[in-house]
Amino acid sequence: METLKIVKIGGHIINDEVALNAFLDDFAQVTSPKILVHGGGKSATKLAQQMNIEVQMIEGRRITNAETLDIITMVYAGNINKKIVAKLQARNNNAMGFSGADGNCIVSEKRPVQTIDYGFVGDIKKVNTGNLKILLNQEITPVFCAITHDENGQLLNTNADTVASELAIAFANEYTTELYYCFEKNGVLEDVNNDDSVIETIDTKNYQTLLENKIISDGMLPKLTNCFHAIHHQVEKVHIGKSEMLLNKNLTHTTIQK
Amino acid sequence: METLKIVKIGGHIINDEVALNAFLDDFAQVTSPKILVHGGGKSATKLAQQMNIEVQMIEGRRITNAETLDIITMVYAGNINKKIVAKLQARNNNAMGFSGADGNCIVSEKRPVQTIDYGFVGDIKKVNTGNLKILLNQEITPVFCAITHDENGQLLNTNADTVASELAIAFANEYTTELYYCFEKNGVLEDVNNDDSVIETIDTKNYQTLLENKIISDGMLPKLTNCFHAIHHQVEKVHIGKSEMLLNKNLTHTTIQK
After folding, report:
1. Is the whole-model pTM more than 0.90?
2. Shortest CA gap B232–chain A (Å)
3. What's the ipTM?
4. Domains, chain A, ranges and CATH?
C-alpha cells in the first residue's frame, strides 16, 4: 500500500512566522500523499482578549461557549488555515483547507455534560475518507483545522491531536498511515528542561514505567493517549519531535510502538 | 451541456440568520451542479469595531491593509464560510468551503497603486476549474468566500460579485452556466423606494438609456458591469433578484441579456 503521512503542528509553530515558514519548507518537500492538521490555541486567546471576551478555563481546558466557538472558527478555519494554504501554494504544494464540516469529512458529537459542560466541543464519531482520497489522488494536500461538525449544522471545537490520529486511523485501510506530531521540542523528554533527554522509543511496556515514575508531563499525556490509540488501530508509525524528522529519518525523536 | 448554477448572496442575507436559513433551504433544493459565492462586508466591519481597528474607506470603498485583511479572512473564510457549509450539510447538501487559494482555484494579482492604494485587493487573473469539476462530479457544492491569492503566498480581498462572474465565465466551456445575484430586493428597481418597480429585462440597449437617465443607482453599477461582462463571455443567463427565483422561474426579477 502507498504511504499517507498525517502531520500535526502545534501552536508554537503556527504562532511564529519564521518557524511556520521553516516547517512548510520541509512539509512541501514530502513527496508522499499527506494531510496537515493544525490547531492554533494561542491566537484564539489573543483575539478573545482583543475583543474583551473572557476565556473560561476549567482544569486547564478551554470551555467553548458560542462566542468562543465563533472566535475559534474565525482564527482556526479562517486566518490560520487560509494562510497555511496560501503559503503551501507558494511552495508549489497544491492544498485545500478544511474543517470537518467541509465535504462532511469529520463528524463528531457534542460532548455530553457530566461534571463539566465543555460547551461546543466535539468528540469524533466518523471520518469519511472518500472525497479526501479523490483529492489525494489529484496530489492535493488537505489541510485540516481542529473544527468538526455534528451533521445538524453545529460546528464543534475538537482536539487537533485527536483529529490527526482519527484521520490516520480512518485511512489505515487504504494507505500505510504514518502519524507525525511536530512541535518545538526534540521529542518526549525525560527531563522537560533538557532538550537532549529524548526518549527515543515508547512502547506499551516502558510507557507504564514512565507513567509510574511521573516522567510524562501532564501536557504530554493526552497526546500519548492519542498516539497509542492510533498505533493500536492499524496506524503503522507514530512519531513525536521537530518537523525536520519528516525529511531526516535519522534525526533524534520519539517513536511510539505497540 | 449540463447546467451549472453560480449563486452569489450578499451581506443582507448573510447577516440575518432567518434570511440565511431561508436562502439555504431554497439553495439546497437546487438539483443541478451549483457553486455558492458569498461576501460578508458588514460582519467584517463589526469585528473591526469590536477590535478597535479603524476601517478606512476611500470613495465608499474599503481599503484593505494587513489588519483588515486578517479580519476579512477570519470573518469570510472562517466564520461565515464554515457556518454556511455546516448548514448545507444539515440540509443533506454536501459542500466544501473555499477561498481562491484552496486548490489554487482563483488566482489574482494585487491591484496596482494608481491614484488610490487599495491595499491587499486582488483582481482576478485566472480560474482553475479542474479540481472543482471533479468535486462537482461528486455532487459536492463548492462554497467560495471572496478571498483569492496571488500564488506567492499573499491572500487578497476580492469583490464577491466578480468572483461569481469569473467562476461562471471560466466554467462556460464545460457547462451551460447561469449566474444568479441574490439579494433582499426583487431585482433592479426603477425606483429604489418601490420594490414593485422591477426592470424585468436589461439588455445592452436599454442599459444605456437607464444609465443616461440615472435610473441605475451607484451601488448597482459594479454589479451590472459584472453581469454584462459575464453575458458577453459565454455565460448563458444572468439573473438579479430574491433567492426564491432559484426555484420559481415565474418570480418577478431582473434578467440580463446581450
Report:
1. yes
2. 31
3. 0.95
4. 3-184+243-252 (3.40.1160.10)
